[in-house]
Amino acid sequence: MSRLVSFNTQALLMLERSNTKCLDDFSRPRSEMATASEICGCHRKVTLQVTLPALPSARELRQKRRGHIFEIDQAERFQVMGFTEVTPKEFPTTTGPCFTRQLVIEHPDQPIGSHLDFVVKHKDGSIHIIECKTTDGIPVEPYGNWVDQIHIQLGLLAVNFTGIEIRGSIIASDLSAGEEEEYNSFSPDMTLLDYYVERGKELIEAKAGRTTPTTMPGILCGFCSYRAGCPAHRDRVIPNEITERVTEYEILDHRKKDLEKSLDPIKKELIAFFGKRFQGVTEDGIAVATTTIAPGETVDSATLKADFPDVFKNCSRPKAGYTKLEIRKLPPAPLAKAA
Ligand code: SF4
Questions:
Q1: Which of 60, 212, 220 to mutate to test the pocket of ligand 1 (most atoms within 8 A of CB)?
Q2: CB of 105 within 8 A of CB of 160?
Q3: Is pLDDT above 90 for 338?
Q4: 166, 232, 250, 280: which has the highest count of C-beta atoms within 10 A?
Q5: pTM
Q6: Which residues, at least 6 apart from 212, have a Cβ–Cβ distance to it below 8 Å?
Q7: Contact in structure between 86 and 100 (CB atoms under 8 Å)
């Protein structure tokens, strides 16, 4: 690792330590409560993070920083659009339009809580929470654990701000590609909150060592520092011939990505030269054509379904499912282990 990269990693580790300290501001110790992000994640990983903390890898630190940078950006966007930033303490008594960041919210009777990325108050007093996610590529649908998380946050807000209209959105941003997508129309559901409270209690039992935590194997297992010995992976033996195919796929996929990286800048140069509409043939006999697709409109199916269920029913068609294959090389061992 170069000196500057190593210096930067150390700096990120220090920033992470101070950010993590700020997150310990609940009325109960973290070991005796469950936060929204913990409830929605892998309980084995959360429990081991308490009993056997491992330092995050350099890559994880950079990814977390990317999330913080997006939050700073989002705050500036609210400000420029006329929303005043107030402290979490000032938020309940300030009239809208205003917003606050990292509002700590807890259930008054149950050991669950959350830090809310953004809570916005409109002129009419209604409240909108926004959960920020930075991604590589924008998913077509929000991931299940994102949806779980916002439902917990909405439920917690509803028990603390009774009688106020509350809504929520998830905003996903791919900072490198400059793409953003909002998944909206979430509202509090108290039956769901009861379910998550029970999940939270199960996690607290596991944190105390009284029960075995449940696992949630997924693609993020590839970044998990506790994968060694994880029961979710112990018995999933992959035969040799499949391993070879997996390796072959991973190599080819890597090559494809490298090729795409080389193709993209050339493609941009060629479009800049040929313009929006062109047809021709080079001296070597290679046909070239550019065509431009006009901007279109999409329909927000969730809103359509909620507001005009009959229209939605008449217009919707069954969509075939498909199976996704995700293959990614596992990272090396974590950076270091805490003493
Ligand atoms: S490897 Fe996956 S399932 Fe196992 S502890 Fe880590 S995140 Fe959970």
A1: 220
A2: yes
A3: no
A4: 166
A5: 0.69
A6: 206
A7: yes
Residue 92 DSSP symbol: G
Identify the pLDDT of residue 339: 46
Q: What is the pLDDT of residue 319?
A: 81
Q: Which atom of ligand 1 is nearest to the CA of 220?
A: 7
Question: Are residues 155 and 189 in contact, defined by beta-carbon separation less than 8 angstroms?
Answer: yes
List, chain by chain if needed, residues with CB within 6 Å of any ligand 1 atom. 42, 44-45, 215-217, 220-221, 224, 226-227, 230, 232
What's the CA angle centered on 19, arms 24 and 143, to 5 degrees?
85
Report how far residue 171's alpha carbon sits from residue 104's, in angstroms, rounded to the nearest whole number: 20
Residue nearest to atom 3 of ligand 1 (CA): 217
The whole-number pLDDT of residue 54 equals: 83
What is the rounded distance in angstroms from the CA atom of residue 143 to the CA atom of residue 172?
A: 10
Q: Which ranges in the chain belong to alpha helices (H)?
A: 3-22, 36-40, 43-51, 58-80, 144-160, 190-207, 231-234, 240-274, 301-307, 309-315
Of 28, 21, 22, nearest to 207 by C-alpha is 28
Biggest CA–CA distance in the chain, Å, is 77
Domains of the chain: 3-212 (3.90.320.10)
Using pLDDT thresholds of 50, 70 and 90, give the confidence band for residue 81.
very high
Q: To test ligand 1's pocket by mutation, which of 37, 224, 235 has the most ligand atoms within 8 angstroms of CB?
A: 224
How far is residue 114's CA from residue 26's CA, in Å, rounded to a whole number? Answer: 9
Rounded to the nearest 10°, the torsion over CA 159, 164, 170, 171 is -140
Condensed to tens digits (0 to 9), the pLDDT of residues 295-315 reads 888 888 889 889 998 988 888
